[in-house]
Write the structure tokens for this entry.
Amino acid sequence: MQLPLFPEAASAVAVDVDHLYIYLTLVSVVMSVLIFGTIFVFAIKYRRRGDEIPQQIHGSLRLEIGWSIFPFLVMLTFFWWGAKIFFANAVPPPNAIDVYVVGKQWMWKLQYPGGQREINELHVPIGRPVKITLASEDVIHSFFIPALRIKHDVVPGHYDTMWFNANKPGRYHLFCAEYCGTEHSGMVGWVTIMEPADYQNWLAGGGASGTMAQQGERLFEQLGCSGCHLLDRQGRGPSLRGVYGSHVQLAGGQSVVADDAFIRESILNPNAKVATGYQPNVMPSFQGQISEEGILQLVVYIKSLAITNAPGAPTAALKPGTLLQPVAQTARVTQPDGGKK
Amino acid sequence: MSTVLQEPQTTETVNYLNAEYGWKSWLFTTDHKRIAVLYLISISVMFALGGIFAGLIRTELLTPEGDLFNSDTYNKIFTMHGVTMIFFFLIPSIPATFGNFLVPMMIGAKDLAFPRINLLSWYIYIAGALFALAAIVMGGVDTGWTFYTPFSTTYSNTFVITAAVGVFIAGFSSILTGLNFIVTVHKMRAPGMTWGRLPLFVWANYATALIQVLGTPVVAITLALVALERTFHIGIFDPAIGGDPILFQHMFWFYSHPAVYIMILPGMGVISELVTCFSRKGIFGYSFIAGSSLGIAIIGFLVWGHHMFVTGMSMYAGLYFSFLTMVVAVPSAIKVFNWTATMFRGSISYETPMLYAFGFIGLFTIGGLTGLFLGTLGMDVHLTDTYFVVAHFHYVMVGGMVLAYMGALHFWWPKITGKMYPDGWGKFSALLVFVGFNLTFFPQFILGYLGQPRRYHAYAPEFQVLNVMSTAGATVLGVGFLIPLVYLLWSLKYGKAAGNNPWGAKGLEWTTQSPPTTFNFDVTPIVTEEAYAYGTHEEAHVG
């Protein structure tokens, strides 16, 4: 019978994490052997032989300082190495392929920019960073791929991202790791990691109803967004061309980067952040009228309207203000996007 | 340790157990020892209940398919296992039983500072437990003991509020016990019992009391908010009505991480008593062990975010919480090293309580070290919410806390009941517990690294071998806990009279008769020695 101690490793990061794990385990074994060995030796050597009274020893400041500082230094190596891996993998690289995931009791719904859609299946190529945007339709889930040693909670009301760069084709487990109700343990699926050529073949097979941006554009029409957000001139609402990734001046004097989260919030809670020059209470909330998948399609559509894709592009890049506001904005306090995420 | 005022007594003497008879004499007692016994019985019932749930979980997990229960039932079982074990066994366990019994005796007092409040805290505990039992009987609750939102506030169709009310109520019992201990330790110490002479068990309970008083209100507020949102749809945690689910986790773990120390600190206090007694040595580094309890109590309030590294919390906050998690490990390490050093050149004997102490040190060390894995940012991403976490906290909670509890039970049983239990059976069951525990939970570390998520009703087939090992271990563990139930009850009737001090232990509680009289000491003792003055030969081995 074979009992593996490690799951398969399908990325360089997975191997890094394994190395850290081995290091932590080795240190733990050494510490345990030292402590248990000492106790064992003492227990044998100093076992009670009669009614003797042992010499009393009250302590040693030197020892106390030593066994406080030395283990702490060792722990700092854990801290440092762990933080290094964590930070290296925190921010997705700009050239990553996008995949959009919606967690819903009790399934994973996946969408690709090309318009392909899947349930409980993720297809990705090796050798390219893949950025996963996570949204939840209901409760908290957690997107966990053991072979890649990555996991991220999928929190309703938030977009979260995670990314990886796989290097080993194969079929791997996908689990929901955050308890989410009745069929939590059924909220599982498979990640298929493919050679680039196979991936291209797979991509060619899907997307019958157009790309995600096209699907978003249709929604944009159906929901009546296009009645106010005209593309090339000012309507009742700001034009959305070039908005994605730019700094938007808000009525309160702050500014915000128009990222996925901002667009989502503006759809569901339009009065939360009103662009300067516009009145609140004009746009209705679309809360409850559009699924998280639909919102993601709209986000991708609006993203496709961007002049520049770089998030946090300088304010000078076509901002809504140029179309909308005749008055130059001066001496605005720009607050960095210090939101919840 | 102090002036001994009594001759060893025979079994026919008046003591706190036979001073009065009848159910009223128990239900209206204000004697801290009787209240301790009431607690001992109550929490044993809850422990048995939680144990039955654990057995059901392990039986279901014998096979990968979810075939014994349906998913909803399984989810309710693991939730009720967690709720009963954490809120109704582990949190009250040592403080409410041995703390209640021993803290006044150890400091030379007649009772706690507020005997009526002490009785009240037991009634509050019972009220809370009844709500929890009602939630079970009515149909259960399926949120997990963590009550995560918005699942608990919006999506669960089970008796969330009933269970939450039970936990809410039990919290006040915990607060009152803590308050009582703080005042007692400050105001009721016998002449000569300076802070520097307090037994370390008292220090540990004092530090625990601080957390109980400062932390418990936060979880009470949090659960009240859950009930408000669930009942009146006030948007606090559910984003669909304007709340933030992560806010719940911050509030919940702000209490529930310190609550881990509520559970483990009193256990550490027990180990300091056991290691010194069975090594016949004064404690090594008294002030470091006492100080580390306070250190844990304070720093323990600053690390809650390590439960939330993958929630999307700021990575800089992650850095802070990871660092402080390393810091909070230092005082625990200090304790382990000092216990080890205490044994150096001691006179070590291996009675049942000492075997539990050995077991505690070993298993708690493993639990602590694996906690560092989880506090390490890059490592936690893979391990969190897997069986690695389950294994880790069972090493701390069962391997640490429950073993300390068993050690305490075997150490002070002669004092509480006046009777000795058969030591051979004690050793045998201690061994069973140790072996069964490791067989149950060690495979779960591996399962976790392989990626099996926790709270899974059905799991991938390749995880079966390790799960079978775990279930087999749980069987042994269950037997290991049942045997003491039998011989301890047996000893009540047939056990040898224990005598005042069967272990030759130091400490004021051993200077009185067993079982003690209602007011513990006929004359208030005057303390003239440091704690654990094993260097002087004084009435060792009476029994």
About this structure: Helices of chain A lie at 12-45, 61-88, 196-204, 212-222, 260-268, 292-304, 320-324. The CA atoms of residues 39 and 45 of chain A lie 10 Å apart. Confidence is low (pLDDT under 50) at residues 308-341 of chain A. Chain A is about 30% helix and 20% strand.
